[in-house]
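hey m, so remember when u said the tokens were messed up on ur end? i reran from scratch. heres the input so u can diff it against urs
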Amino acid sequence: MLITAIRLTAATVCLIAFTGAAMAAESAKPRKAVKAPRAPLMERFSCRTGPNDEQARLIVEVVKSRPMEFAYYSRLGTSVCSIHGRRGDAYTKWQDNGGGKTEVRLLEGTAQLEYRPGFFSIKFAEVGRMRFCGMEGELNGSVEVRSKKPECALAGVFD
């Protein structure tokens, strides 16, 4: 009986040791890192806000997380404003600042572009309305668009 108890104790000790070793080996395996969602290779944004006599539109094309082209159009009564920029054209200078942000120097003023997958924002600063819109003053406002939403979010573009 004493020998059986010693064997049972030895078997239990071995079982506990093997289980501990197996758990240690399992926890020592490198875990797979969770990958962040990737941006699509090409993303197009388009939005329109307001009735025909007071509306704003924005169309943007982003390739490999870099804005490549934008077109802004607004109408306030009989006044029409149109600003277009394409990477590499003769009328704009593009500078990528990292983190999805790009600065575009226009003929008069600048446009700050910000891109995240599913979201695009453009902020105009000191853009001469006479050159692009045929009216006095400066355009200092922003337009935001989200994918799968037809409406733009506007701030200050009609001021």
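this time it looks ok to me. The chain has one domain: 42-155. if urs says something different then somethings off w ur setup not the seq
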